Amino acid sequence: MAAPDRFTMPSSAVFPEGVSQTELLEQLRRLSWGAADILRAYARGEQPPHGFPKALSVDNGGEGPVSAADLAVNQWLLDGLMAAFPDAGWTLLSEETAKEQLTEGEPLPGEWLWILDPLDGTKDFLQGTGEYAVHLALVRGKRPVLGVVLLPEAEELWLGLIGEGAWCENRQGERSPVRFSQRSSLADLILVASRSHRDDRLEKLIAALGLAGSKAVGSVGCKVATILRGETDLYVSLSGRSAPKDWDMAAPEAVLLAAGGRFTHADQADLLYNTGDVRQAGCLIASHGKSHAVLAERATQAMAEIDPGFPV
User: Fold this and answer.
1) pTM to 2 decimals?
2) What is the pLDDT of residues 264-277, one digit of tens each?
3) What are the C-alpha distances in Å from 219 to residues 17, 24, 129, 194, 233?
4) In the chain, how many H helices and how many E strands?
5) d(CA 64, CA 58)
6) Which residues are registered as beta bridge partners of 216?
7) What domains does the chain contain, in order, with CATH numbers?
8) pLDDT tens digits for 151-167?
9) For the chain, how big is the Rg over CA atoms in Å?
């Protein structure tokens, strides 16, 4: 059995001047559960709260379906953060505003950046699987300091503060801890995988890792939550030009890292955000951390055979 990886947690979270951790968490709770109410209403064909229109429309243009629910939650979160912290001096970026805000090759200016995905797993939302999430991540420089992953249908609000820890809350504010599994041998580990983003290379990589089994789940936030609950142990993303984006990965990574897990490239390099390229390409591995170095080493070796030259 492999020994647990040694990993030092980063220093405790620090926020912009004038922003207290207590007030920030309170506002994030309010905004998150408000987002849950909006999404659950749309999912059930009911009148959403906060004055948003009832009809669920779907725009299939661009890179994927964009629904009225995406846009309503996007407005709710952006307006809410701006109203609650008008002088914070941070920049707000979401999947829905990225085309207007971003210029290829140019990071957004400023030290502090919110990266939001108002609806991660839109296809799952539209198909009624319930496996969708809301992501909010606060990034300082190119690394996250806080993450929020909301699972509306499971009524779970996962919060992570780098250097301080991670936990899950229900609507009543009752906390439950992270429960990583005790599995550490690669032959015992369970993978959480995507239903729709799987190709021959990924199948070969999974086979090369020699794992115990896999579970298919939508939304990156929902996948990472299965690791946090101890139901699974790792998630692998393998992609090139059609890679996940900053808003897919930042919040789940922050919560997992705050809990003591790992989320890195196969060469164990950190994921970086706001670099001028929002794609999170390569071979990315998220895990509970107990066998991360061994997983990364085996994945790197396997990819050298499966697709020589692929940047892990």
Assistant:
1) 0.93
2) 999 999 999 999 99
3) 33, 25, 11, 8, 16
4) 8, 14
5) 10
6) 193
7) 21-177 (3.30.540.10), 186-306 (3.40.190.80)
8) 999 999 999 999 999 99
9) 19
